[in-house]
Amino acid sequence: MSLPKAVLAEDHLLIREAIRLELGREVEVVATVQDGAAALEAVAQYQPDVLLLDVSLPKVNGITVARRAKQSCPDLKILFVTAQSDRTYVEEAFRSGASGYLLKGAIGSELREAVREVLAGRPYRSAVLG
After folding, report:
1. What's 5-129's CATH class?
2. How far is the C-alpha of 5 from the C-alpha of 108, rounded, in Å?
């Protein structure tokens, strides 16, 4: 059985590596990118099952990436992994097509569960967001 494919869009190298390590064998990370334009290209090229995406990305922001990615790949699951905890960002992320919203501070404790939930078609929010 093959693992679900994931694209990881995060502009900070250390966060990108932390996410990759924490994911372990939950998914196969087929591409890691540093900006929103590259995220859209990777989604088109690899047709992943899940896109892990920061809100704040260079070139094209994460909200716009999510909207465009969902238009071209309606079945794509999108999990925002971000430091932005303001309710406005959370609401906008879900309106843009997100399946989940995880705060970076919870990567170690919640990332695997969040990925499992969104891949199963269930919405996910970091515990601290309620």
Report:
1. alpha beta
2. 20
The 10s digit of each residue's pLDDT in 25-45 is 899 999 999 999 999 999 999
Strand (E) or helix (H) holding 101: strand 100-103
Helix 62-72 vs helix 87-95: crossing angle, to nearest 10: 20
CA distances from residue 26 to 2, 19, 56, 121 in whole angstroms, order as listed: 10, 11, 25, 15
Q: What is the pLDDT of residues 55-100, one digit of tens each?
A: 999 999 999 999 999 999 999 999 999 999 999 999 999 999 999 9
pTM recorded for the entire structure: 0.96
